[in-house]
C-alpha cells in the first residue's frame, strides 16, 4: 500500500475516533465494557512496542550483558519511574546507550 | 480584552508546560521518519494528516521495517483508540457548539490538548467561551508539532549515521508507559502484552504487535472486572 494512502486512511480513522462521541453525544453512550478496555490500551500497546526493542535488538532474544539496549532501557525505566519526566528519561537512556557503545568502541 | 480572546490565550498558556515535552518529541519524530525511509514531504504531511505523536513514530518505524499497509493502518487505529475516550470525556462540554466547531476541536483533540482542556472544563464547567480555551490549547500544540517535526526532518540528517537515534522511540514509550502503570490490572496488561510481543515477534506482517496489544487489553479488563 502506498504511504500516502496509509496516512490518509490512518488519519481518517484517527479523526473519526476523535469526533466519535463528540458527534454522538446524547444519541449514544459509551458502553461500560469498551470504557474498561480503553484504559488498558496505552499500557498494552506501549509495552508491546518496548519489549522487542529491548529484548530482541537483532531479532533474537539477547539476555547477555552485551545487549546494551536492554541495559540502557532498564536504566531508563528506573529514571522514568523515579522522575516521571519524559525528556530526562529519553536523555538518560540515550546517554547510557551511547556511553556503553563508546566504551565498546562502537561509536 | 474580548472574552473569547482571553479564553484563547488562557488555553495557550495552559498548554505551554506540555509543549516543552512535545517539542523534543517532534524533533525525534522528524529525524526518525527520514531515517525510516519516508520522504521529507511525507514525513511533514503525516504531522498534519495523522497529527498523533506516538502513532506517527510507530507508523514511521513500521514503514522502515517494510510492514504491509493494512498492518500499519490497523496499528494506527489501535494506538489511537484512546482518543475515543477523550472524545466521550469532552463531549458534554462541546455539545451545544455548531458542527464546524465540533469538527475543528475533534481534529485538535490530542493527548496534550485533552489534558489541558479537561482540567479547565472540570474547573469552569460549560461557559460561553470554553471552546476558545480548547482551541487555544489545541492550536498551540498543533503549531509546536508542525515546527518541531520540520526541524527534526531538517536537522536529523546532520546526526552521525552510527548514532542509535532509533533508540529514542522505545525510550519515549518507556517515559509514556510508566505513569499509566498505576495499579495491578494496568501492570498485568503491560507485562502480558510485552511477553506476547516477544513470543509472537516471528508472526508475519508485524501482526505480533496487534495480538500482544489485544491480549494485554483483555488481561487488564478481566482482572479489573474481578476486583
What structural keywords apply?
heterodimer, A: 107 residues, mainly alpha, B: 227 residues, 0% strand, globular
What's the total count of β strands of chain B? 0
Distance between the termini of chain B: 51 Å
Radius of gyration of chain A: 20 Å
Principal-axes shape call of chain B: globular
Q: Uncertain regions of chain A: pLDDT < 50 for 5+ in a row? A: none
Give the ordered list of helices and strands of chain B: HHHHHHHHHHH
* Class from helix and strand fractions of chain B: mainly alpha
Short description:
The complex is a heterodimer of chains A (107) and B (227). With 107 residues, chain A is mostly helical.
Secondary-structure map:
The complex is a heterodimer of chains A (107) and B (227).
Chain A: H1 3-24, H2 32-38, H3 41-55, H4 68-83, H5 86-103
Helix pairs in contact in A: 4-5
Chain B: H1 3-35, H2 40-49, H3 53-64, H4 69-79, H5 82-94, H6 99-107, H7 111-124, H8 130-156, H9 168-177, H10 184-199, H11 207-226
Helix pairs in contact in B: 1-3, 1-7, 1-8, 2-8, 3-4, 4-11, 5-7, 7-8, 10-11
Amino acid at each position: 500500500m502506498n504511504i500516502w494512502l496509509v496516512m490518509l486512511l490512518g488519519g481518517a480513522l484517527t479523526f473519526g475516533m476523535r469526533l466519535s462521541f463528540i458527534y454522538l453525544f446524547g444519541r449514544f453512550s459509551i458502553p461500560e465494557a469498551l470504557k474498561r478496555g480503553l484504559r488498558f490500551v496505552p499500557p498494552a500497546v506501549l509495552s508491546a512496542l518496548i519489549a522487542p526493542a529491548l529484548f530482541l535488538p537483532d531479532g533474537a532474544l539477547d539476555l547477555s550483558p552485551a545487549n546494551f539496549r536492554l541495559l540502557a532501557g532498564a536504566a531508563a525505566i528506573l529514571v522514568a519511574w523515579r522522575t516521571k519526566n519524559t525528556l530526562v528519561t529519553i536523555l538518560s537512556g540515550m546517554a547510557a546507550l551511547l556511553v556503553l557503545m563508546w566504551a565498546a568502541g562502537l561509536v | 480584552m474580548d472574552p473569547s480572546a482571553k479564553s484563547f490565550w488562557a488555553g495557550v498558556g495552559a498548554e505551554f508546560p506540555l509543549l516543552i515535552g512535545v517539542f523534543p518529541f517532534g524533533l525525534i519524530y522528524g529525524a526518525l521518519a527520514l531515517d525510516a525511509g519516508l520522504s521529507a514531504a511525507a514525513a511533514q504531511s503525516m504531522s498534519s494528516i495523522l497529527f498523533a505523536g506516538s502513532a506517527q513514530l510507530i507508523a514511521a518505524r513500521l514503514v522502515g521495517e517494510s510492514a504491509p499497509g493494512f498492518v500499519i493502518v490497523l496499528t494506527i487505529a489501535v494506538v489511537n483508540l484512546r482518543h475515543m475516550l477523550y472524545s466521550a470525556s469532552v463531549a458534554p462540554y462541546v455539545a451545544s457548539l455548531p458542527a464546524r466547531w465540533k469538527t475543528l476541536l475533534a481534529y485538535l483533540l490530542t493527548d496534550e490538548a485533552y489534558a489541558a482542556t479537561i482540567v479547565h472544563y472540570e474547573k469552569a464547567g460549560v461557559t460561553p467561551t470554553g471552546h476558545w480555551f480548547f482551541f487555544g490549547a489545541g492550536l498551540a500544540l498543533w503549531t509546536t508539532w508542525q515546527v518541531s517535526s520540520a526541524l527534526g526532518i531538517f536537522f536529523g540528517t546532520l546526526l552521525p549515521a552510527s548514532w542509535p537515534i532509533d533508540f529514542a522511540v522505545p525510550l519515549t514509550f518507556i517515559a509514556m508507559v510508566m505513569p499509566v502503570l498505576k495499579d495491578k490490572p494496568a501492570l498485568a496488561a503491560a507485562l502480558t502484552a510485552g511477553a506476547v510481543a516477544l513470543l509472537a515477534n516471528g508472526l508475519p506482517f508485524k501482526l505480533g504487535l496487534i495480538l500482544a496489544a489485544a491480549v494485554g487489553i483483555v488481561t487488564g479488563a478481566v482482572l479489573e472486572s474481578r476486583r
